[in-house]
Amino acid sequence: xxxxxxxxxxxxxxxxxxxxxxxxxxxxxxxxxxxxxxxxxxxxxxxxxxxxxxxxxxxxxxxxxxxxxxxxxxxxxxxxxxxxxxxxxxxxxxxxxxxxxxxxxxxxxxxxxxxxxxxxxxxxxxxxxxxxxxxxxxxxxxxxxxxxxx
Length: 150
Prior knowledge:
Layout: H1 7-24, H2 29-57, H3 71-77, H4 83-96, H5 105-115, H6 128-138
């Protein structure tokens, strides 16, 4: 079961439960019993998801630390990505990073470029760091072999 359940999904499921309750009034007693059982199953699933969600997102400051990465971090590297794409990048990095090294800016950049490559003339400048590298190359001091003797 995926523990990356968004608050929107909880709201959506709760809305569905309320809608089903509203529809129950128009149904026969037999149909209502079936739907009530389905509602109990949904509530049970919601409780399990909420428990996983709480465990994933709870930090006890007396016993744990957490370093968070957010959409703004991804947009700092790839400002062209939408919020949902940034979250895709963060989830992919979280699920595929090497725990021995942690999550780094390079992981985020590589993942963003892998998931959402740019096409066309901007393809060579698909991230802030690649733009910086190109600029650094322009202003690099010439080596003695390449400099002209005066």
